[in-house]
Specification:
- The protein has 356 residues and is mainly alpha-helical.
- The chain has one domain.
- The protein contains 16 helices and 2 strands.
- Helix 1 runs antiparallel to helix 3, helix 4 packs antiparallel against helix 5 and helix 9 runs antiparallel to helix 12.
- The radius of gyration is 20 Å and the shape is globular.
- It starts with a helix and ends with a helix.
Amino acid sequence: MKTRIIGFDLARAYAIFGMFIVNFNTVFGSHSNHNGLSGFLNLFNGNSSTLFVMLAGMGVSLMTNRNDYSLEERKTIKRTIVKRSWFLFVLGLAFYFWWPADILHFYGGYMHIAVLLIFLPKKYFLYAAAAAIIIFHIILILIPYETGWNFETLMYNDFWSVEGFIRNTFYNGWNSIFPWIAYFFLGMYLGRLDWKDNKTPKRVLLIGLTVYIIINLVQLFASSLTQNKDLLFYLTADYLPPFLPFMLGTASFGLILISIFIFIGNKVGESKIAKILVSTGQMTLTHYIAHLVLGIFLLSLITGKTLSYDLLKETPTNPFIILTFTIFYFLLSCTFSYLWTKKYKNGPLEMLMRKI
């Protein structure tokens, strides 16, 4: 069990680093430049967020990975998850005033819905994931995806209206429940697998590689396969909108990474570096909030840019500066995490969530 947890936390640490790159680059860099170093930074778009959601689903599943819970124990676990979901939902909505691309309130939605399925056999998690993707594509036929969006500024115009809030939350927000909860359900399925068996990460890695290669080959030759602009857009769209090819590509990449970090955890689980990364991976909530406040504030001082989400309208910062700062900030975060966990079991915001 120890090795298993180390592998998952190493994956979380990687996802944190990827999250830093994505958000610092989104605010200060160019999210539309796919050449050179900017192109490298943009490769992290989608993959880090999807891995986070998958790992969150795994975490919830691992909380309930026993067959002998009493009825009262099941009720207690469900209440705990529901309380945490509402904490994240409220915290995310409050944080939205600062960071309109917030994912926390969506996490709360994923967890709240997941409670309905938490004690079912793991095959139902895959059924639910497929259903979430299908529901999204059905809504896509009924409501134009761009409804409510200003894609030039990446702002959602009517988020605080009832109609806009429901639309954003369930359909076309940054990480809307449909289809993003599919990643959460996939993570729940992975959490029920026997990771003590060495065959499990090998099997998951093989499946992930196969799907990832197929999707990337389709996208690479998409322009040769069809001249239909709508179909071409469907096959190659990135993050917004999250069409099926994007979902399969990022989910399969997540499977690859999780398997690889399980292998790494098995090899270096007792090393000093691994322990530092594990402590970082155990404080995802703290680092999520901190990098969007402290990290963006520090980078704005370095670049001399006005501190606001409207930085998207300004001239992009040199991608080398963004990458260098991201590495420095990640090392700083790792150092803080390691020192903090020497005295406390959970990160600052993780402790607050548990107390509330």
